[in-house]
UniProtKB/TrEMBL annotation:
Coiled coil: none annotated. GO terms for molecular function: copper ion binding. HAMAP family: CutC. The lineage of its organism: Bacteria, Pseudomonadati, Pseudomonadota, Gammaproteobacteria, Lysobacterales. It holds the Pfam family CutC. It is found in: Cytoplasm. This is PF03932 family protein CutC. Belongs to the CutC family.
Length: 247
């Protein structure tokens, strides 16, 4: 049985490098993590690919909000997937639903086709699907290699029983990655209860700005930020190594 893996959602180059330093198995590069994540810039993807030695996946999501996309958004996503392939990324994270909460198979097939030989993760659009069991079968049929899920709940610990049911249904045909709210102090519990194959966390900590001057009136432009932290990643990796193996 393959060992459990740790993926870190990184919202900057510094976060991606911290993930690597801390012992993550893979980076999912994102923009605007505070809003749930969108496609990062071309320059950020290129810089991360040049600097990372571990596998790099890129979130392909044109905007925040729902996962119901029109033709223009699909075109933009396909172009982003193709750019990731040209830059030598290892994979992409995609997902699209129709207005009834079903997997949008036509649009997802187009994205998988654009990915070519890249690995494909179906991201947490899955958690917004109406029928998770049916959605999982459709995602398997699309050829995705993994699905990221919180079990349809606000965090993976709460959704662990549902994740375990999905892992049992998957029966090795697709890897099930648990994500949302995973921290060093709860990862072992999530692993034991979810039976997931992989785990997804942002491992963020507050980073104070080096600015000496601050305009305190600009509440919408706070200079401090959250970034993935190498020590937190290392703690997650250690917790995962110490977690009980899957049944």
């Amino acid at each position: 049985m393959a060992r459990a893996l740790l993926e870190v959602a990184a919202g900057s180059l510094a976060s991606a490098l911290a993930a690597q330093e801390g012992g993550a198995d893979r980076v999912e590069l994102c923009g605007s993590l505070a809003g749930g994540g969108v496609t990062p810039s071309y320059g950020l993807i290129a810089a991360a690919r040049e600097r990372l030695r571990i596998p790099l996946y890129v979130l392909v999501r044109p905007r925040a909000g729902d996962f119901l996309y029109d033709d223009a958004e699909l075109d933009a996503m396909c172009r982003d997937v193709e750019a990731c392939a040209r830059l030598g990324c290892d994979g992409v994270a995609i997902g699209a639903l129709d207005a009834d909460g079903e997997v949008d198979q036509a649009r997802c097939r187009a994205l998988v086709a654009a990915a070519g030989k890249l690995g494909v993760t179906f991201h947490r659009a899955f958690d917004a699907a109406r029928h998770p069991s049916r959605a999982l079968e459709e995602i398997v049929a699309l050829g995705c290699e993994r699905v990221l899920t919180s079990g349809g709940r606000a965090d993976a610990l709460e959704g662990a029983p549902a994740i375990a049911a999905l892992a049992a249904q998957a029966a090795g045909r697709i890897r099930v990655m648990a994500g949302a709210g995973i921290r060093p102090d709860n990862l072992a519990a999530v692993a034991a209860r979810s039976h997931a194959d992989e785990f997804h966390a942002s491992a963020r900590a507050l980073r104070r700005s080096a600015m000496h001057w601050r305009n305190e009136q600009l509440r919408d432009l706070a200079p401090d930020r959250e970034e993935s932290d190498a020590a937190t990643v290392a703690a997650l990796a250690a917790a995962l190594r110490g977690a009980a193996p899957r049944d």
